[in-house]
Amino acid sequence: MSREDAVIVDNLRKVFGDVVAVDGLSFEVKSGEVFGLVGPNGAGKTTTLRILATILRPTEGSVTIFGRDVVRETKDVRKMISYLPEEAGAYKYLTGYEYLTFMAHVYGVDKTALEDGIRLSGLGEALRRYVSTYSKGMKRRLQVARTLMVKPKLAIMDEPTSGLDVVHAVYLRNALREYVKKYNITVVLSSHNMLEVEYLCDRVALINRGKVAIIGAPNQLLQEFRAKNLEEVFVKVVGDA
Ligand code: ATP
Questions:
Q1: Does residue 207 have a pLDDT over 90?
Q2: Is the CB of 43 under 6 A from ligand 1?
Protein backbone atom coordinates (compact mmCIF):
# COMPACT_ATOMS: atom_id res chain seq x y z
CA MET A 1 0.00 0.00 0.00
CA SER A 2 1.32 3.44 -0.84
CA ARG A 3 0.90 6.23 1.70
CA GLU A 4 -1.37 7.89 -0.82
CA ASP A 5 -3.96 5.11 -0.92
CA ALA A 6 -7.24 5.98 0.80
CA VAL A 7 -9.15 2.94 -0.45
CA ILE A 8 -7.94 -0.36 -1.85
CA VAL A 9 -10.57 -2.73 -3.19
CA ASP A 10 -8.91 -6.02 -4.03
CA ASN A 11 -10.65 -8.79 -5.93
CA LEU A 12 -13.92 -8.11 -4.14
CA ARG A 13 -16.81 -10.54 -4.54
CA LYS A 14 -20.28 -10.39 -3.03
CA VAL A 15 -22.83 -13.10 -3.61
CA PHE A 16 -26.47 -13.01 -2.49
CA GLY A 17 -27.85 -16.55 -2.87
CA ASP A 18 -27.36 -17.24 -6.56
CA VAL A 19 -26.92 -13.57 -7.53
CA VAL A 20 -23.33 -12.48 -8.01
CA ALA A 21 -23.57 -8.75 -7.23
CA VAL A 22 -19.83 -8.00 -7.25
CA ASP A 23 -17.54 -10.28 -9.20
CA GLY A 24 -13.83 -9.70 -8.64
CA LEU A 25 -13.78 -5.92 -8.40
CA SER A 26 -10.48 -4.11 -7.90
CA PHE A 27 -9.66 -0.42 -7.78
CA GLU A 28 -7.74 2.07 -5.71
CA VAL A 29 -8.63 5.57 -4.59
CA LYS A 30 -5.92 8.08 -3.75
CA SER A 31 -6.12 10.31 -0.72
CA GLY A 32 -7.99 13.54 -1.50
CA GLU A 33 -9.51 12.17 -4.69
CA VAL A 34 -13.17 12.37 -5.70
CA PHE A 35 -13.77 8.96 -7.22
CA GLY A 36 -16.94 8.03 -9.11
CA LEU A 37 -18.60 4.67 -9.63
CA VAL A 38 -20.88 4.59 -12.64
CA GLY A 39 -22.60 1.72 -14.40
CA PRO A 40 -25.96 0.30 -15.39
CA ASN A 41 -28.70 -0.69 -12.93
CA GLY A 42 -27.70 -3.77 -10.99
CA ALA A 43 -23.98 -3.42 -11.83
CA GLY A 44 -22.96 -3.67 -8.16
CA LYS A 45 -22.32 -0.03 -7.22
CA THR A 46 -24.52 0.14 -4.12
CA THR A 47 -23.30 -3.26 -2.93
CA THR A 48 -19.68 -2.07 -3.24
CA LEU A 49 -20.41 1.19 -1.40
CA ARG A 50 -22.18 -0.73 1.39
CA ILE A 51 -19.12 -2.95 1.81
CA LEU A 52 -16.88 0.14 1.99
CA ALA A 53 -19.27 1.54 4.60
CA THR A 54 -19.01 -1.69 6.69
CA ILE A 55 -22.75 -2.38 6.33
CA LEU A 56 -22.15 -5.57 4.31
CA ARG A 57 -19.32 -8.09 4.55
CA PRO A 58 -17.53 -9.27 1.42
CA THR A 59 -17.96 -12.89 0.33
CA GLU A 60 -14.34 -12.87 -0.92
CA GLY A 61 -11.58 -10.34 -1.43
CA SER A 62 -10.74 -7.36 0.73
CA VAL A 63 -11.28 -3.64 1.21
CA THR A 64 -8.93 -1.43 3.19
CA ILE A 65 -9.61 2.18 4.08
CA PHE A 66 -6.55 4.22 5.02
CA GLY A 67 -4.82 0.94 5.76
CA ARG A 68 -7.62 -0.57 7.89
CA ASP A 69 -9.49 -3.68 6.89
CA VAL A 70 -13.28 -3.21 6.74
CA VAL A 71 -13.93 -6.65 8.26
CA ARG A 72 -11.15 -7.03 10.83
CA GLU A 73 -10.90 -3.36 11.83
CA THR A 74 -14.50 -2.24 11.44
CA LYS A 75 -14.45 0.08 14.44
CA ASP A 76 -11.39 1.96 13.20
CA VAL A 77 -12.91 2.25 9.74
CA ARG A 78 -16.19 3.62 11.11
CA LYS A 79 -14.33 6.45 12.84
CA MET A 80 -12.95 7.60 9.49
CA ILE A 81 -16.01 7.40 7.27
CA SER A 82 -19.36 9.05 6.74
CA TYR A 83 -21.92 7.24 4.61
CA LEU A 84 -24.86 8.55 2.62
CA PRO A 85 -27.11 5.63 1.65
CA GLU A 86 -29.19 5.59 -1.51
CA GLU A 87 -32.33 6.22 0.52
CA ALA A 88 -31.57 7.97 3.75
CA GLY A 89 -34.27 8.97 6.18
CA ALA A 90 -34.02 11.86 8.62
CA TYR A 91 -35.75 12.36 11.94
CA LYS A 92 -39.17 13.66 10.95
CA TYR A 93 -39.98 15.31 14.27
CA LEU A 94 -36.93 17.54 14.23
CA THR A 95 -36.46 20.70 12.24
CA GLY A 96 -33.64 20.62 9.70
CA TYR A 97 -31.56 22.77 12.02
CA GLU A 98 -32.22 20.49 15.01
CA TYR A 99 -31.30 17.48 12.91
CA LEU A 100 -27.93 18.97 11.88
CA THR A 101 -27.27 20.06 15.47
CA PHE A 102 -28.09 16.57 16.71
CA MET A 103 -25.78 14.92 14.17
CA ALA A 104 -22.97 17.37 14.99
CA HIS A 105 -23.40 16.27 18.62
CA VAL A 106 -23.37 12.57 17.78
CA TYR A 107 -20.11 12.97 15.85
CA GLY A 108 -18.66 15.30 18.46
CA VAL A 109 -17.75 17.98 15.94
CA ASP A 110 -17.41 21.69 16.61
CA LYS A 111 -19.67 24.63 15.81
CA THR A 112 -17.94 25.39 12.51
CA ALA A 113 -19.11 21.97 11.31
CA LEU A 114 -22.70 22.94 11.98
CA GLU A 115 -22.19 26.18 10.08
CA ASP A 116 -20.71 24.19 7.19
CA GLY A 117 -23.72 21.87 7.29
CA ILE A 118 -26.11 24.78 7.12
CA ARG A 119 -24.25 26.25 4.15
CA LEU A 120 -23.87 22.94 2.30
CA SER A 121 -27.58 22.19 2.62
CA GLY A 122 -28.47 25.53 1.04
CA LEU A 123 -31.81 25.19 2.83
CA GLY A 124 -31.77 28.64 4.43
CA GLU A 125 -35.01 29.52 6.23
CA ALA A 126 -36.44 26.07 5.55
CA LEU A 127 -34.06 24.71 8.20
CA ARG A 128 -36.55 26.04 10.78
CA ARG A 129 -39.23 23.73 9.44
CA TYR A 130 -39.85 20.13 10.42
CA VAL A 131 -38.11 17.59 8.21
CA SER A 132 -41.53 15.94 7.76
CA THR A 133 -42.56 18.95 5.64
CA TYR A 134 -39.55 18.69 3.29
CA SER A 135 -39.71 17.62 -0.33
CA LYS A 136 -37.61 14.66 -1.50
CA GLY A 137 -34.85 16.95 -2.81
CA MET A 138 -34.78 19.01 0.40
CA LYS A 139 -34.33 15.85 2.48
CA ARG A 140 -31.52 14.80 0.18
CA ARG A 141 -29.76 18.15 0.59
CA LEU A 142 -30.01 17.83 4.36
CA GLN A 143 -28.51 14.34 4.21
CA VAL A 144 -25.64 15.35 1.93
CA ALA A 145 -24.88 18.24 4.31
CA ARG A 146 -24.97 15.85 7.28
CA THR A 147 -22.59 13.43 5.55
CA LEU A 148 -19.98 16.05 4.71
CA MET A 149 -20.14 18.49 7.62
CA VAL A 150 -18.49 15.99 10.01
CA LYS A 151 -15.36 16.14 7.82
CA PRO A 152 -14.73 12.41 7.51
CA LYS A 153 -11.47 11.18 6.03
CA LEU A 154 -13.64 9.31 3.53
CA ALA A 155 -17.18 10.24 2.45
CA ILE A 156 -19.09 7.39 0.80
CA MET A 157 -22.07 8.77 -1.11
CA ASP A 158 -24.65 6.76 -3.01
CA GLU A 159 -26.17 9.03 -5.68
CA PRO A 160 -25.75 12.24 -3.67
CA THR A 161 -27.78 14.48 -5.98
CA SER A 162 -30.56 12.07 -6.91
CA GLY A 163 -33.92 13.85 -6.86
CA LEU A 164 -32.43 17.36 -6.92
CA ASP A 165 -33.56 19.96 -9.41
CA VAL A 166 -30.94 21.41 -11.76
CA VAL A 167 -30.31 24.61 -9.80
CA HIS A 168 -29.85 22.83 -6.49
CA ALA A 169 -27.80 20.03 -8.02
CA VAL A 170 -25.43 22.64 -9.48
CA TYR A 171 -25.23 24.47 -6.14
CA LEU A 172 -24.52 21.25 -4.27
CA ARG A 173 -21.87 20.04 -6.73
CA ASN A 174 -20.01 23.35 -6.50
CA ALA A 175 -20.27 23.42 -2.71
CA LEU A 176 -19.24 19.77 -2.43
CA ARG A 177 -16.23 20.12 -4.70
CA GLU A 178 -14.96 23.24 -2.96
CA TYR A 179 -15.57 21.77 0.51
CA VAL A 180 -13.85 18.40 0.01
CA LYS A 181 -10.80 20.02 -1.57
CA LYS A 182 -10.57 22.53 1.29
CA TYR A 183 -10.65 19.83 3.97
CA ASN A 184 -8.87 17.12 1.96
CA ILE A 185 -11.82 14.75 2.21
CA THR A 186 -11.62 11.69 -0.02
CA VAL A 187 -14.93 10.87 -1.70
CA VAL A 188 -16.26 7.73 -3.32
CA LEU A 189 -19.64 8.36 -4.91
CA SER A 190 -21.99 6.70 -7.33
CA SER A 191 -24.06 8.52 -9.91
CA HIS A 192 -26.17 8.03 -13.01
CA ASN A 193 -25.56 11.61 -14.07
CA MET A 194 -22.57 11.66 -16.43
CA LEU A 195 -22.44 15.45 -16.46
CA GLU A 196 -22.10 15.38 -12.71
CA VAL A 197 -19.38 12.76 -12.82
CA GLU A 198 -17.41 14.69 -15.44
CA TYR A 199 -17.60 17.80 -13.32
CA LEU A 200 -17.03 16.31 -9.88
CA CYS A 201 -14.78 13.31 -10.22
CA ASP A 202 -11.01 13.22 -10.54
CA ARG A 203 -11.33 9.61 -11.70
CA VAL A 204 -14.18 7.31 -12.52
CA ALA A 205 -14.67 3.53 -12.72
CA LEU A 206 -17.33 2.15 -15.00
CA ILE A 207 -18.70 -0.99 -13.36
CA ASN A 208 -20.48 -3.59 -15.46
CA ARG A 209 -21.76 -6.93 -14.15
CA GLY A 210 -19.80 -6.59 -10.92
CA LYS A 211 -16.44 -5.86 -12.56
CA VAL A 212 -14.48 -2.75 -13.49
CA ALA A 213 -14.91 -2.29 -17.24
CA ILE A 214 -12.82 0.89 -17.55
CA ILE A 215 -11.19 3.33 -15.16
CA GLY A 216 -9.54 6.72 -15.58
CA ALA A 217 -9.85 10.48 -15.42
CA PRO A 218 -12.92 11.73 -17.32
CA ASN A 219 -10.77 13.61 -19.87
CA GLN A 220 -8.56 10.61 -20.43
CA LEU A 221 -11.61 8.39 -21.10
CA LEU A 222 -13.05 10.93 -23.53
CA GLN A 223 -9.79 10.89 -25.50
CA GLU A 224 -9.39 7.14 -25.35
CA PHE A 225 -12.91 6.53 -26.70
CA ARG A 226 -12.95 9.57 -29.01
CA ALA A 227 -16.16 10.61 -27.29
CA LYS A 228 -17.76 14.01 -26.75
CA ASN A 229 -18.98 13.16 -23.27
CA LEU A 230 -19.01 10.36 -20.71
CA GLU A 231 -22.49 9.25 -21.79
CA GLU A 232 -21.00 8.26 -25.12
CA VAL A 233 -18.19 6.38 -23.41
CA PHE A 234 -20.73 4.62 -21.21
CA VAL A 235 -22.85 3.49 -24.15
CA LYS A 236 -19.78 2.36 -26.12
CA VAL A 237 -18.58 0.22 -23.21
CA VAL A 238 -21.86 -1.14 -21.88
CA GLY A 239 -23.64 -1.29 -25.24
CA ASP A 240 -27.23 -2.43 -25.22
CA ALA A 241 -26.69 -4.82 -22.32
P1 ATP B 1 -28.62 0.75 -9.41
O2 ATP B 1 -27.90 1.58 -10.43
O3 ATP B 1 -29.91 0.23 -9.96
O4 ATP B 1 -28.74 1.39 -8.07
P5 ATP B 1 -26.38 -0.92 -8.49
O6 ATP B 1 -25.24 -0.88 -9.46
O7 ATP B 1 -26.26 -0.07 -7.28
O8 ATP B 1 -27.74 -0.62 -9.25
P9 ATP B 1 -26.68 -3.13 -6.65
O10 ATP B 1 -27.79 -2.52 -5.86
O11 ATP B 1 -25.34 -3.20 -6.04
O12 ATP B 1 -26.58 -2.46 -8.10
O13 ATP B 1 -27.14 -4.61 -7.05
C14 ATP B 1 -26.28 -5.54 -7.71
C15 ATP B 1 -27.00 -6.86 -7.84
O16 ATP B 1 -27.13 -7.47 -6.55
C17 ATP B 1 -28.42 -6.78 -8.39
O18 ATP B 1 -28.65 -7.90 -9.21
C19 ATP B 1 -29.29 -6.83 -7.16
O20 ATP B 1 -30.54 -7.38 -7.45
C21 ATP B 1 -28.48 -7.74 -6.25
N22 ATP B 1 -28.69 -7.44 -4.81
C23 ATP B 1 -28.33 -6.32 -4.17
N24 ATP B 1 -28.64 -6.39 -2.85
C25 ATP B 1 -29.23 -7.61 -2.68
C26 ATP B 1 -29.78 -8.30 -1.56
N27 ATP B 1 -29.78 -7.76 -0.35
N28 ATP B 1 -30.28 -9.55 -1.77
C29 ATP B 1 -30.27 -10.11 -3.00
N30 ATP B 1 -29.74 -9.51 -4.10
C31 ATP B 1 -29.24 -8.29 -3.95
A1: yes
A2: yes
pLDDT by residue (tens digit) across 144-183? Answer: 999 999 999 999 999 999 889 999 899 889 989 999 999 9
What's the gap in Å between 14 CA and the centre of ligand 1? 10
Mutate to test the pocket of ligand 1, among 12, 45, 47 (most ligand atoms within 8 A of CB): 47
DSSP sequence for the chain: --TTEEEEEEEEEEEETTEEEEEEEEEEEETT-EEEEE-STTSSHHHHHHHHTTSS--SEEEEEETTEETTTTHHHHHHHEEEE-SS----TTSBHHHHHHHHHHHTT--HHHHHHHHHHHT-GGGGGSBGGG--HHHHHHHHHHHHHHT--SEEEEESTTTT--HHHHHHHHHHHHHHHHHTT-EEEEE-S-HHHHHHH-SEEEEEETTEEEEEE-HHHHHHHTT-SSHHHHHHHHHTT-
- Average pLDDT over all residues of the chain: 93
For the chain, domains (ranges, CATH) are: 5-88+153-240 (3.40.50.300)
